[in-house]
């Protein structure tokens, strides 16, 4: 009878009635265990996976909690042993358990032989040794690529047009001083935009910039005139989110300063820009407006790109869509930037990139841009 058969029987059924019989029986178990272990570690596995599988099967045969050989010995020999034999069965069983620690996986895998598959060996890839290579003929994993966010796409389209006109891209800090954000731009202390309800203050002298215009001053200080730049970037305002407002949004600022810049340059450039972006049929309209940092100031509208100017839901039946503020740079602002307004003049504009993206892609809720919903983002 093999050991597998013997462990299912009690000592009485096996005819073991004294200490010598117990010793002989446990001796047989130990010998079987040693023999099986030696033949396992002499085996050659062709991969780490196979080696682990072999080791695990062997370990479970002996040590599995439910049906392993040791559990059966405990059950049938120790627990049901006659009282006079119990001490000797207990002692032998403990010794067996001690010896069986050599059957644990981590001990076994160190000893089991391991052969490198010939294909890999040929490739000389010594560092791959010890890795389960699996089936090398299977196709690789495909990681789906994401895409640029629609607001980024819009920003890049706008940048492209101005880069072709010879403008450079400039940027500045999102955490800005009250001086650059307001004072240097001729925005007086009493202006409502400086109120706590409109601006996010970090402390009394520092804000999250409310527009990209402060970079006008920074660039003038840095480069002087002439200057042709656009300034894309994030801006922040104390706004409650709704379909057309978010506390963080994106602007692009434009600034051209040279010795003979007029309002005609401003009109021509922005009309060219609108036609490049929305199509040759688009017309532009300039209406007087007010900004503290430009004089005169204007509001630019384009003919509605949805109805061509007939009147529709998007343009609220007016035929026009307002898209940006603009104007001739105020002489005080030039001076604050260190540029002599007697020698130089300039124009500037500021537009909302998110709003342009909403127009371009016909999106009616700005919140969609910032909810990270893949079903929405996948469409661009
Ligand atoms: N900074 C203005 C705003 O956030 C936008 C603006 C208007 C910028 C006119 C300009 C400009 O450069 O000339 O509302």
Fold blueprint:
Blueprint: H1 3-6, H2 11-14, H3 19-41, E1 44-45, H4 48-63, H5 69-78, H6 86-99, H7 105-111, E2 113-114, H8 118-123, H9 150-164, E3 168-169, E4 175-177, H10 178-181, E5 201-203, E6 206-208, H11 214-223, E7 227-236, E8 248-258, H12 263-278, E9 284-291, E10 294-303, E11 320-329, H13 331-336, E12 345-352, H14 353-361, H15 374-377
Parallel strand pairs: 1-2, 3-7
Antiparallel strand pairs: 4-6, 5-6, 7-8, 8-12, 9-10, 10-11, 11-12
Helix pairs in contact: 3-4, 3-6, 5-6, 9-14
Bound molecules: 3,4-dihydroxyphenylalanine.
The CATH level-2 architecture of the largest domain is identified as 2-Layer Sandwich
- CATH-wise, what's the superfamily of the largest domain? Bira Bifunctional Protein, Domain 2
CATH topology label of the largest domain: BirA Bifunctional Protein, domain 2
Widest sheet: strand ordering: 3-7-8-12-11-10-9
As a whole number of angstroms, the C-alpha radius of gyration is 41 Å
Can you tell me the CATH class of the largest domain? Answer: Alpha Beta
Shape estimate = rod-shaped
Bound molecules: 3,4-dihydroxyphenylalanine
| Domain unit count | 2
Structural class of the helix and strand makeup?
alpha+beta
Q: Can you walk through the features of this model?
A:
The chain has 380 residues and is α+β, with helices and mostly antiparallel strands. The chain folds into 2 domains: 3-128, no CATH class; 150-377, BirA Bifunctional Protein, domain 2, CATH 3.30.930.10. It has 15 helices and 12 strands. The strands form 3 sheets. Strands 3-7-8-12-11-10-9 form a 7-stranded mixed sheet. Strands 4-6-5 form a 3-stranded antiparallel sheet. The chain has a two-stranded parallel ribbon with strand order 1-2. The longest helix has 23 residues, at 19-41. The structure holds 3,4-dihydroxyphenylalanine (DAH). 3,4-dihydroxyphenylalanine binds at residues 211, 213, 253, 291, 294, 325-327, 348-350.
């Amino acid at each position: 009878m093999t050991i597998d058969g013997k462990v299912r029987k009690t000592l009485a059924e096996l005819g073991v009635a004294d200490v010598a019989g117990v010793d002989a029986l446990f001796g047989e178990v130990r010998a079987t265990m040693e023999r099986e272990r030696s033949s396992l570690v002499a085996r050659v596995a062709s991969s780490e996976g196979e080696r682990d599988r072999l080791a695990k099967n062997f370990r479970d045969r002996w040590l599995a909690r439910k049906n392993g050989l040791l559990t059966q010995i405990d059950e049938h020999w120790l627990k049901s042993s006659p009282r006079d034999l119990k001490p000797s069965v207990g002692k032998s069983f403990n010794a067996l358990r001690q010896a069986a620690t050599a059957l644990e996986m981590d001990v076994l895998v160190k000893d089991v032989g391991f052969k490198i598959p010939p294909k890999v060996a040929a490739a000389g890839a010594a560092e791959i040794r010890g890795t389960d290579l699996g089936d090398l003929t299977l196709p690789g994993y495909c990681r789906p690529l994401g895409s640029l966010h629609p607001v980024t796409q819009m920003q890049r389209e706008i940048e492209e047009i101005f880069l072709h006109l010879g403008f450079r891209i400039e940027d500045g800090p999102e955490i800005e001083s009250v001086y650059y954000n307001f004072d240097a731009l001729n925005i007086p202390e009493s202006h409502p935009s400086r109120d706590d309800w409109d601006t996010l203050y970090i402390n009394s002298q520092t804000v999250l910039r409310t527009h990209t215009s402060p970079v006008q001053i920074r660039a003038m200080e840095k480069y002087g005139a002439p200057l042709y730049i656009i300034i894309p970037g994030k801006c922040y305002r104390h706004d409650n989110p709704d379909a057309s407002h978010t506390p963080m949004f994106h602007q692009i600022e434009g600034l051209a300063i040279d010795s003979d810049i007029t309002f005609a340059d401003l009109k021509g450039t922005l009309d060219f820009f609108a036609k490049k972006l929305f199509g040759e049929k688009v017309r532009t309209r300039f209406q007087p407006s007010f900004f503290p940092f430009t004089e005169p100031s204007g509001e630019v509208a384009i003919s509605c790109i949805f109805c061509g100017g007939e009147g529709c839901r998007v343009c609220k039946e007016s035929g026009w869509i307002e898209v940006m503020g603009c104007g001739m740079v105020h002489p005080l602002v030039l001076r604050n930037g260190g540029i002599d307004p007697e020698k130089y003049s300039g124009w500037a504009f500021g537009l909302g990139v998110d709003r342009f993206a909403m127009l371009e892609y016909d999106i009616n809720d700005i919140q969609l841009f910032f909810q990270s919903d893949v079903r929405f983002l996948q469409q661009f």
